[in-house]
Specification:
Blueprint lengths: L6 H9 L14 H11 L11 E6 L2 H8 L4 H9 L2 E8 L6 H4 L6 H6 L2 H25 L3 E5 L4 H8 L4 E10 L15 H4 L4
Antiparallel strand pairs: 1-2, 2-4, 3-4
């Protein structure tokens, strides 16, 4: 069976995609990031909630503040990447639901009035959106280096507030020649999928 997506797009988004560890010094523009967001904003989430929040770290001063909270193995590549994004979950996403889910504006209060419920939903749906974000980076012809090796409490205090939970730090740019490690194995279909 063939897929609707052509082979080149399949390769760009999946087969040839790796986590990039090094980048050229070519800048990533605001226009590229706007186009990326304008694509991924349409991807589905529960109740059309949009809990993902993105902090783009551009200035040298902000970069130094971020690097201080990265794990040692992630510091140099974060310092050198053309652009870095902090991806966070907004635990107060429900405030936007009446506008984002007009078919049932009461969802804000019916389902998400309690903070623990919102946090769980924000975490799941922002994680979905983070995956879309990484695919969007690749669709823009760039490479992504997503990382969870950072002091989350430090990043939250430095760049966010108590209503936003940092999830990923993503280095973004054109990959350099030495950007990638060899591809690691993947599980086979029958190791992952069961039919009942």
């Amino acid at each position: 069976m063939t897929l609707a997506l052509d082979t080149a797009a399949q390769d760009l988004l999946f087969r040839e995609a790796h986590t990039a560890n090094a980048f050229t010094d070519e800048p990533v523009t605001d226009e590229q990031m706007q186009a990326l967001y304008d694509l991924i904003k349409y991807a589905p989430t529960a109740f059309n909630q949009t809990p993902l929040r993105i902090v783009l770290v551009r200035s040298e001063e902000a970069r130094e503040r971020l690097v201080a909270h990265m794990s040692e193995g992630n510091q140099a590549k974060t310092k050198a990447a053309p652009l870095v994004a902090i991806l966070a979950a907004d635990n107060e996403f429900h405030e936007e639901l009446p506008a984002l889910f007009p078919a049932f504006p009461q969802a804000k209060d019916v389902f998400f009035s309690e903070r623990p419920v919102r946090e769980k939903s924000a975490e799941l749906n922002a994680a979905l959106q983070a995956g879309y974000f990484i695919l969007g980076v690749r669709a823009a012809g760039l490479a992504a280096g997503p990382m969870t090796g950072f002091d989350a409490a430090g990043v939250q205090k430095e760049f966010l507030d108590d209503d936003h939970t940092p999830m990923l730090v993503v280095n973004i740019g054109k990959p350099s020649e030495d950007a990638y490690r060899p591809r690691s194995p993947r599980l086979a279909y029958d190791q992952v999928v069961s039919v009942v």
